[in-house]
Design brief:
Structural class: mainly alpha
Length: 307
């Protein structure tokens, strides 16, 4: 005879707390062994947002199953949040990504995106982000892309919830397979690029760089409006933002030159007119950036000028 439902939930709750504590201790120990992380390199799309380590430090299948059961059984947002944090940490290890999928965990975690508690949605997005580093997982996670886009649009500007959604969209846009599900959210992404903080701008640009590498999405992007795009193309701009903005522009220039089209398809306030019209301001910005001290920045400027 199986355990009563309440007993399984209680044991799973204990696993959540114990696993979370063990994970924190492991992270502290691992961090001291690794030392400080090196600075990341330049923006090159399409790129994933994270790269999960391969490790033998994993929870066993039974513990993961109880966690997923708990997440599905409880309505307590504090328990949901802790369960999602533990599953997210577990999903950082590649071996657990398959186990969680095979246990039906993706649909349970995805169901948390409809929760009314922002912290629960944020932690669900973080878990899906780690799980999305697995191609087979992406095939299941892609059903939530429209919902994730909606969460990004409705979340408070620059919030952790919004950033978590953008990180997941970055991973899901590494290949062009699901770009079509994101095209309707391009106006939202461009608005966030204009209105967001530097942290938000970097995350938005990671998604836009991935999308701009796909010729099928070029028209959607070129019709968009970013009043502040030229302001970003400045020697004083944060290097990570500037480089990604230039890669975004270079990708679009390359794709538009390879496509048939007329200028009457686009409004004068569109990205097309900024990049491909007779824009003296854009030309002046590029000329100034040729003197930028960063070699990768200059490389992208030359790429734009020679398209």
């Amino acid at each position: 005879m199986g355990e009563p439902r309440g007993a399984v939930a209680a044991r799973a709750a204990a696993i959540v707390l114990g696993a979370a504590a063990c994970y924190c201790l492991w992270r502290l120990a691992a961090g001291s062994r690794r030392g400080p992380r090196a600075a990341s390199g330049g923006a090159r799309g399409p790129l994933p947002d994270n790269s999960p380590p391969v490790s033998t430090h994993t929870m066993d299948r039974d513990a993961l199953q109880k966690l997923i059961y708990l997440l599905n059984a409880t309505d307590d947002p504090l328990i949901q949040e802790q369960a999602l944090i533990t599953l997210s940490n577990s999903a950082a290890f590649s071996v657990n990504q398959d186990i969680i999928r095979n246990l039906g965990g993706l649909s349970v975690i995805g169901g948390m995106l409809s929760d009314c508690v922002p912290k629960v949605k944020e932690k669900a997005l973080n878990a899906l982000n780690n799980l999305s580093m697995n191609i087979k997982n992406q095939e299941e996670i892609q059903v939530y892309i429209t919902q994730v886009c909606g969460n990004v649009e409705s979340a408070p500007l620059n919030s952790d919830l919004q950033l978590a959604g953008l990180r997941l969209l970055t991973n899901m846009s590494v290949t062009s397979d699901y770009h079509w599900k994101m095209t309707s959210s391009i106006p939202c992404l461009l608005r966030l690029l204009s209105e967001g903080t530097e942290r938000t701008q970097i995350q938005v640009l990671k998604v836009l760089v991935n999308l701009s590498a796909n010729p099928a999405v070029t028209g959607h992007l070129l019709r968009g409006q970013v009043p502040t795009l030229l302001l970003l193309l400045d020697n004083c701009t944060n290097r990570d933002i500037l480089l990604r903005a230039l890669v975004f522009a270079a990708n679009l220039k390359k794709n538009v030159n390879n496509k048939d089209g007329t200028m009457d398809q686009y409004s004068e306030s569109s990205i097309f007119f900024t990049l491909c019209g007779d824009s003296t301001a854009f030309a002046q910005k590029l000329a100034s950036l040729l003197h930028h001290p960063d070699a990768e920045v200059k490389e992208q400027v030359v790429r734009i000028l020679t398209q």
